[in-house]
Specification:
With about 575 residues, this protein is an all-alpha fold. The chain has 23 helices and no strands.
C-alpha cells in the first residue's frame, strides 16, 4: 500500500489546503506583517528602524516598558514557584481529592483578568463588605493594598499560576516511571529524588511555564489597567489603550510602534525559550507512565491543608467580596440585611440595554469563533497529521502563524486588525472597523491555536493507514474527512471549541480597542462599569460571568469520558 506521501494533492484536497492557508494567513500573518510595515516605514517610504528608535527615546514609553518587564518578571517568578509546588504536590504525592483540586487550581485561568482585579480590589479595600463584617477592613482613607506594584504582581501571579501548573504537570506525566523506581531502589529519599532527578528533568517545562507566565503578564490588559492605573504604574498595554482611546485613529502610527515593541519583546522571549530548551533537552528512555505517588505519611494532612488554604485564600475571599458587593444597595455600606438587594442583578439582566446587548454579542461571537476554529482545526490538523512532503510543510507554516498570533499580546493583534480593516474592503467597499465582524475575526485569529492543539492531540492517535485504506477504496477527500477523520477527532474538537468559547466569552484584551457603541462585549462592559464608578453593577455582571464560567467548565468536565485522554486539561 502506498504511503500518504505517494498521493498527490489534487482536487478538493488541494483546494481545501489552499483555502485554509489563505484564510489563516489573511487573519494571522497579514495583519502582523502590515503592523510592522506601517510602524517601520520611514519618511522616504522604505523600511527603517528610525521610528522605533524615536519611540524608545520617549520617557513615557521607557517607563511603561520597564514597568511591563518588571511586573511581568516578578509575577512570572512567583507564578512559577506556586505552579511548580502545586504540580509536584498533586503529581508526585498521594494527596487526596486530586480531581477537584486540579479543577480549582485551573479556575483562576478561566476567570477574566479584569474580574479578578475587581474582585480583589473589593476584597481588600476599606469598603470591603467581608472585611467590614469581620472588623478587618483598612481605615477609611488608608492606601488600598492592592493598588501597588506588590498587589499588581500578586494578582498577575494568581492569574497565570495555572499555566505553569499545566505545563509542569504535563512534564511530570511524560516521565518514565523507571527513573523514579530506580532512584527509590537505590535508596534515594523523596527530597534527593526531587533535587537530583525530577527538577533537572523538569527544567524545559519550568522554563516554558516561566516564559508563558511572563508573556501572559506582559500582554495582560485587565489587571494592568484596573490595578495599575490607580497605582500610577503604567505598562505598555495600558499606554497603548490610553493613547488610542484618547486620540482615536489619528495616533495609529504611534500605537503601532508601541505594539511592535511589545511584540518584539514577546517573540524574543519565545525565541530564547526555544534555544534554551534545546540545550536543556534530555533524552528519556521508556514510555510515559503514571508518576510515582510518594507516600507523605504523617505529612499528608498538613500538605493537603496547605493546598486547600492556598486555594481558599486565592479564590474564596475575592469571590465572597465580589458576590457581596454585587448585592449591596450602595458600595461601601456595611454588610447587613438592610443593605442587601437583588436590584443590581435585575438592572444588568433585564433593564440595561448595554448589558443585554453585551451578553448577546459575546455569546454569539464566542460561539461562532468556537465553531469556525473547530472546523479549521479539523481541516488543518488533517494536513499536519496525515500528509507528508509539501502539503505538510505548508500546513506547518500556516499553523506557525496561528501560534504567533496566539503568542503576541491581544492588544497587539487588535492594533494589527485596526490597521488591516480600518479602510473599506477591496471590491466590497465595506469597512469592518466598528462592527462585531472584526471582533469575531480577531477571536478566530488569536484563539485558533487553542482549538488546533486540542485537535492535534487526537489526530496523533489516529493511524495513517485508515486514510490510506479509504483512498484505495476510492473515497474522495471530503468523504474521507467526513466519514473517517472528523468522527474520530470530533470529541477533541468539541472540547477545544468549548475552551475557545470560555476564553473568548470573557476576554477584554482583544476587544478593548475593537468595540464600539452597539458592539460591546461582556469584558468591555464590565471594564467600563468599573472604570466609570458603577462598582455594584460591575460586581453583579462579573458575578454572572463567574457563574457562567464555572457552569461551562462543569459541562466540559462531563465530556471527559467521551474525549481522548489529555483533551481536557484538568482531567487525566
Amino acid at each position: 500500500m502506498r504511503s500518504p506521501s505517494a498521493f498527490a494533492i489534487a482536487g478538493g484536497e488541494g483546494l481545501s489546503l489552499a483555502a485554509v492557508a489563505f484564510l489563516v494567513t489573511l487573519l494571522c500573518g497579514v495583519p502582523l506583517a502590515l503592523l510592522f510595515a506601517i510602524g517601520l516605514t520611514g519618511e522616504g517610504g522604505g523600511l527603517t528602524l528610525g521610528p522605533l528608535a524615536e519611540t524608545l527615546a520617549s520617557r513615557s514609553v521607557q517607563r511603561a516598558l520597564w514597568n511591563s518587564l518588571e511586573s511581568s518578571f516578578l509575577s512570572a517568578c512567583l507564578a512559577t514557584v506556586l505552579g511548580t509546588v502545586l504540580a509536584l504536590a498533586l503529581g508526585l504525592t498521594n494527596v487526596r481529592a486530586k480531581a477537584p483540586l486540579v479543577f480549582l487550581i485551573l479556575l483562576p485561568m478561566m476567570i477574566p483578568p479584569h474580574v479578578t482585579a475587581i474582585a480583589w480590589s473589593q476584597a481588600l479595600g476599606p469598603a470591603s463588605p467581608v472585611l467590614q463584617a469581620l472588623g478587618l477592613a483598612p481605615a477609611a482613607g488608608a492606601p488600598h493594598p492592592v493598588y501597588s506594584l506588590t498587589g499588581l504582581v500578586a494578582l498577575l501571579s494568581f492569574q497565570h499560576m495555572p499555566i505553569v501548573f499545566l505545563v509542569v504537570r504535563a512534564g511530570l506525566r511524560a516521565f518514565p516511571r523507571e527513573l523514579s523506581d530506580a532512584a527509590r531502589v537505590s535508596g534515594a529519599r523523596a527530597p534527593r529524588l526531587l533535587w537530583r532527578i525530577t527538577l533537572p528533568l523538569l527544567a524545559p517545562s519550568l522554563l516554558a511555564g516561566f516564559v508563558l507566565a511572563f508573556v501572559s503578564a506582559l500582554g495582560n490588559f485587565g489587571i494592568n489597567a484596573l490595578i495599575g492605573i490607580p497605582a500610577r504604574y503604567t505598562t505598555l498595554p495600558v499606554l497603548i489603550w490610553r493613547r488610542l482611546a484618547g486620540y482615536g485613529p489619528s495616533v495609529i502610527g504611534d500605537v503601532a510602534l508601541i505594539s511592535i515593541l511589545l511584540g518584539i519583546v514577546t517573540l524574543g522571549l519565545v525565541a530564547i525559550q526555544v534555544l534554551l530548551q534545546r540545550r536543556m533537552r534530555n533524552a528519556l528512555v521508556g514510555l510515559p507512565q503514571q508518576p510515582l505517588a510518594v507516600d507523605l505519611g504523617r505529612a499528608r494532612l498538613p500538605v493537603e491543608a496547605t493546598v486547600w488554604l492556598l486555594l481558599a485564600a486565592t479564590l474564596l475571599l475575592p469571590a465572597l467580596s465580589l458576590f457581596a458587593t454585587s448585592m449591596m444597595r450602595t458600595y461601601g455600606l456595611p454588610l447587613a440585611a438592610s443593605s442587601l438587594t437583588l436590584e443590581n442583578y435585575a438592572e444588568i439582566l433585564f433593564r440595561q440595554a448595554v448589558t443585554l446587548r453585551a451578553f448577546a454579542n459575546s455569546t454569539v461571537a464566542a460561539a461562532l469563533a468556537a465553531l469556525l476554529i473547530a472546523g479549521l482545526s479539523i481541516l488543518l490538523g488533517y494536513f499536519l497529521a496525515m500528509r507528508r512532503g509539501m502539503a505538510r510543510r505548508l500546513a506547518g507554516l500556516v499553523a506557525a502563524q496561528a501560534d504567533v498570533a496566539y503568542a503576541v499580546p491581544g492588544l497587539v493583534m487588535s492594533i494589527a486588525f485596526i490597521l488591516m480593516f480600518l479602510r473599506p474592503l477591496p471590491v466590497l467597499g465595506v469597512s469592518l472597523y466598528g462592527t462585531m465582524a472584526i471582533i469575531l475575526l480577531a477571536y478566530v485569529a488569536v484563539f485558533l491555536a487553542i482549538g488546533l492543539n486540542s485537535v492535534m492531540a487526537a489526530y496523533m492517535q489516529v493511524d495513517a493507514s485508515l486514510d490510506d485504506a479509504a483512498r484505495v477504496s476510492g473515497a474522495g477527500f471530503f468523504r474521507r474527512l467526513a466519514r473517517v477523520h472528523a468522527p474520530l477527532v470530533a470529541p477533541a474538537a468539541a472540547s477545544g471549541a468549548i475552551l475557545v468559547f470560555l476564553t473568548s466569552y470573557n476576554e477584554v484584551t482583544v476587544s478593548a480597542l475593537l468595540w464600539s457603541s452597539g458592539n460591546e462585549t461582556i469584558g468591555t462592559t464590565i471594564f467600563n462599569y468599573e472604570d466609570g464608578g458603577y462598582t455594584t453593577l460591575a460586581a453583579a455582571m462579573s458575578s454572572v460571568t463567574v457563574v457562567a464560567t464555572v457552569l461551562v467548565m462543569l459541562a466540559v468536565n462531563a465530556l471527559a469520558r467521551h474525549v481522548p485522554a489529555g483533551a481536557i486539561p484538568w482531567k487525566d
